[in-house]
Amino acid sequence: MEKRSTWPDNRDVSLLVDAARGIRGERVPVWFMRQAGRSLPEYRALREGTTMLEACLRPEMAAEITMQPVRRHGVDGAVFFSDIVTPLKVAGIDVDIKPGVGPVFGTSISSKADIDNLVSHRLEDSQEIRDAVKICVEELDVPVLGFGGAPFTLAAYLVEGKPSRDHLAARALMYSDPESWDRLMTWAADITGRFLEIQIEAGASVVQLFDSWAGSLSLKTYEEKVLPYSTRALSYATVPTIHFGTGTSTLLGQMASICDVLGVDYRVPLDSVAKRIPGKPLQGNIDPALLAAPWSVLEKHIDEIIEAGKAAPAHILNLGHGVPPTTDPEVLTKIVSYVKGEL
Ligand code: CP3
């Protein structure tokens, strides 16, 4: 892919960026999805009295929250603290994040007029996002990971107006009104693409595209109705890309075709993915449930994952989904120490 030649030469040389480029280092790099957030008492203290989206759009606060898990755990990367709907908020869309629920929109999208209105909102720029990422890049000696929500996951929220289990409304729209679906998904790809681009311009070294809900789709639907738009979103990235979804076992080949590193959830062993998709760097896939297990159990699980990851050209150790809010943060610190050979 020609975009590789545009990777800036002066980006961090680090275990994480190397792995994302398919280069295996002396040990696996490690970070955790949702490492910034409710599992940390210092996060809960800082967030008091501030809504989630307010916190995302206060540069000093968003930067501080991004850096907290790096200081505490010594992870190899800092995932930017924000949300998949932050760019929508910046673009003027009526969205809020309800604690314990997730993103909730003022209106759901059901008619062509709703889509006309939606696509009139553009993300030009966000000084807040830019400044927050810049602070982290300047202060940290590990790479900053930017991220965005994949068009389908965003559309699933937008069409329902709130989180849903099976995304029926979105899945109906794609077939009942293909033209509206195309407009909605093209728009969502561009807004997420621009969000990624802003983070990269501010210094993010790697970006991850989350398609959390793609697992509810058949392979055929995914290929026809989703993949072209995820491709479009990722085309904005000029740094290595990671693509992750949950329950996506049947879709992994297609997802891998549009990114540099394939994120694997906890349901599929890494060595089986490496066999299916040879030559692909992989990220994953500690079962978040085992963070609450005795250390001896967790240690064995991590050993197995690192071993299985050797079947891929490079491996970034992570969870198979986000850190549960009830996690004892000391367990995460211990995992990092273990991986670094410090235990
Ligand atoms: O990984 C990180 O540490 C970076 C920050 C991050 C957040 N959200 C912060 C957040 C990232 C990468 C996300 C992505 C995100 N947001 C996804 C994709 C990843 C995934 O988990 O599948 C999705 C689907 C969302 C939408 C969303 N935002 C949900 C479902 C929730 C949880 C609602 C709840 O309270 O249980 C949010 C809110 C959210 N985003 C929180 C955080 C830390 C919790 C808000 C709080 O602390 O008050």
TrEMBL record:
Residues 29-38, 145-161 form the Uroporphyrinogen decarboxylase (URO-D) domain. It catalyses: uroporphyrinogen III + 4 H(+) = coproporphyrinogen III + 4 CO2. GO terms for molecular function: uroporphyrinogen decarboxylase activity. Its EC number is 4.1.1.37. Homodimer. InterPro entries: UROD/MetE-like_sf, Uroporphyrinogen_deCO2ase_HemE, Uroporphyrinogen_deCOase. Its main location: cytoplasm. PROSITE patterns: UROD_1, UROD_2. Pfam families: URO-D. Pathway: Porphyrin-containing compound metabolism; protoporphyrin-IX biosynthesis; coproporphyrinogen-III from 5-aminolevulinate: step 4/4. The gene is hemE. It is found in: Cytoplasm. This is Uroporphyrinogen decarboxylase. Belongs to the uroporphyrinogen decarboxylase family. It comes from Flaviflexus ciconiae. SUPFAM superfamilies: UROD/MetE-like (SSF51726). GO terms for cellular component: cytosol. Substrate binds at R34, Q35, A36, G37, R38, D83, Y157, S212, H321. It comes from the Bacteria. Keywords: Cytoplasm, Decarboxylase, Lyase, Porphyrin biosynthesis. CDD domains: URO-D (cd00717). Catalyzes the decarboxylation of four acetate groups of uroporphyrinogen-III to yield coproporphyrinogen-III. Coiled coil: none annotated. NCBIfam families: hemE. The lineage of its organism: Bacteria, Bacillati, Actinomycetota, Actinomycetes, Actinomycetales.
